[in-house]
Amino acid sequence: MHSSPFSDAGRASVFDVIIAGCGPTGAMLAAELRLHDVRVLVLEKETEPVSFVRIVGLHIRSLELMAMRGLLDRMLEHGRKRPAAGFFAAIDKPAPKGLDSAHAYLLGIPQPVIERLLEEHATQLGAQVRRGCAVTGFEQDTEGVTVELADGEQLRARCLVGCDGGRSTVRKLLGVAFPGEPSRTETLMGEMEVGVPQEEIAAKVSEIGRTNKRFWLRPFGKGAYSVVVPAAGVSDRAEPPTLEDFRQQLRAVAGTDFGVHSPRWLSRFGDATRLAERYRVGRVLLAGDAAHIHPPTGGQGLNLGVQDAFNLGWKLAAQIRGWAPETLLDTYQAERRPVAEDVLDNTRAQMELHSTEPGPQAVRRLLTELMDFDEVNRHLIEKITAIGIRYDFGEGPALLGRRLPDTDVKDGRLYGLLRRGRGLLLDRTARLTVGGWADRVDHLADPTAALDVPCVLLRPDGHVAWIGDDQQDLDAHLSRWFGKPAK
């Protein structure tokens, strides 16, 4: 194999990649890198994992990615399936029929649980995680990155990835601009007990919820309620709200504070919308909220970050292992930044539709009518659940650049063949070969898959990289995505 431009011939690196942040994005990226024997250290500034139980939703594409890596069954044990519907601006429409996925549902799962499961997955594969370690500085050179911690310790790696959230230290130190809009509105969210009957709460929530989509009280096990209410104004998110803040805003919106008491956790979120101008500067990269922030409407944030990690992992591993084509790592930004732009746009639109002003309410009523058309409803669901993504791989059939849904293949399921994070050739002709790429690409001849094309080359993230039946053309595309063949 050719030598890697990320070689560390000078100062020896203890690690190949240091990841700042052990949230879902950082943990997923660490696991993806470990599938290719990349030496990974994850640094997390918090000493303990998050303790408050906030429910997050895994959308269809994220569920597919979990299935590809053998994680879905673990997730299902701790989650609750819900219909894949009502995501766009909380407009209550049923899921369109026949969504093209074996996992066409939403999985509600506590955030601490998904973070624990992904961290366990990464450490089981050999990633190291150090908590209580805040990155305070770094310097990169032609051979690597020297990372400095809060206690003065210095660590050396060949690459650094900032998965350290919307206030990313790595992004700020890197000097990457983060343009967009600051928060214009803020919403309080928490979990607490109430002092009035459930029937009274349900009636008031039904009445107000017809026009105010940023207000709800929902039962959440053992007498507690999940409470969401608009804040009085925009403040510093670093300060959590108080129970009195909730009481005041509940009285302002609903005319009663419902006797809320005994909070388990209280937080606030704004509608700031920002996108990093670059996802990579030399050997330092950004992923997840460090690269993009947006309002939580539609529940896309965690999913977007995990999908960033899935796109980046195999490409960065290829760079480290020395077989990456010259421009492979550049495709991370080229593919994922437009996806983030689209998410920012659709969350901006949804926030407008949450407004109680007459104009936005009129647009909301119109869109509610339009969503009765299956094509409109399907388009919006596929957008939010990320199964409608098509990366630009150039001219070709409609399937090119899209993800391939899970399906039955010879001796099992398609996604089961992607567990190792390698490429995969599905060869219905049974006469093609992956040749010198066999160390990076698996080959399934006569897959009996429900394909209406002769052969498909899948990248490790499950996206279709090539369709055809010509060996020479296949070799060219293997080179494009998987580098030079082994000698």
UniProtKB/TrEMBL annotation:
Its EC number is 1.14.13.211. Keywords: FAD, Flavoprotein, Oxidoreductase. Residues 16-347 form the FAD-binding domain. One of its GO terms (molecular function) is FAD binding. The keyword ATP-binding does not apply. It comes from the Bacteria. Its cofactor is FAD. SUPFAM superfamilies: FAD/NAD(P)-binding domain. InterPro entries: FAD-bd, FAD/NAD-bd_sf, RIFMO-like. PANTHER family: BINDING MONOOXYGENASE, PUTATIVE (JCVI)-RELATED (PTHR43004:SF19), TRK SYSTEM POTASSIUM UPTAKE PROTEIN (PTHR43004). This is 2-polyprenyl-6-methoxyphenol hydroxylase-like FAD-dependent oxidoreductase. It comes from Streptomyces canus.
